[in-house]
Specification:
Layout lengths: L3 H9 L1 E12 L3 E4 L6 E7 L1 E6 L5 E4 L2 E5 L5 E4 L8 E3 L9 E5 L7 E10 L6 H5 L4 E4 L2 H15 L5 H22 L5 H6 L5 H9 L7 H7 L4 H12 L3 H19 L4 H7 L5 H12 L3 H5 L6
Parallel strand pairs: 1-9, 2-8
Antiparallel strand pairs: 1-10, 2-7, 3-6, 3-10, 4-5, 4-7, 6-11
Helix pairs in contact: 1-4, 3-4, 6-7, 7-8
Length: about 300
Amino acid sequence: MHDPLSDVVRLLRPRAVFAKGISGAGRWSVRYSRFDQPSFCVVLEGCCVLAVDGEAAIALQAGDFVLLPATPGFTLSGEEGTLLPTLIDPTQTPVTDEVRHGRQDGPPEVRMLGGWFQSDADTPGLLQSLLPAVVHVRDVPRLSLLVNLVGEEVRSDRPGREVVLSHLVGMLLVEALRETARGPHSAGLLRGLADARLTPALRSIHERPAHPWTVAQLAATAALSRSAFFDRFSRTVGVAPMEYVLTWRMALARDLLRHHDANVADVAERVGYSATSTFSAAFRRHVGTSPLRYARGIATD
């Protein structure tokens, strides 16, 4: 059975680039500037408050996992009252075993492991389109275990470190996606996969991207009328069915052109276009450049 979540994570090609321990005691508050890379944090012990720009503040506690798919600006603070936050640029933060906020002496009142990763995907916003701005999961031991393993691997200098890190971050993403799909704030593909009627259609699109899908055919996989399926898919996933088909085909095309050394004619056939010229025109409209120029790493015509 085809798994759309696995497809997406494979296209993202996540790789860990940074992780560190974070602790605090007493009165403290730090402000992180917008970063635009996916970031994560697990609270190992104690409590703190996370306030992400444009979102309601969250009181975090031990066992909580947070994923910020696009990492806008945010403030992290202790619970002993507000202070003018210290400004931190995450791109300029040195790699250390742990950073301490607030009172420097005595045991910490909160301990966390935080980090971020980059993706080799050529589809901008793919992860952000799947998830809400803040993914907050409470008491999922598997996530805490994986983040701790990421921290251990980052601090080590063992052979195969980069391979292990990429696999661990991929597993983190899958677990976060799974947990979010079960919650009330899922978005996009995740919300669709939580709908038993829409799941067969989504799996079919991912399994056979080259098939000449129509709304009627996809509606048949969902055992719904054409109009009922169109309305339900558009409302749940956030885009019309054929728009989703196009988006997924173009995501695959980008990946094939940039990472698999495939020629334009082969890519066109693999994503459902019988004529290379038709595929090239669709790719140019969707991506903003021709397939050949994209494959050569040229962003625009």
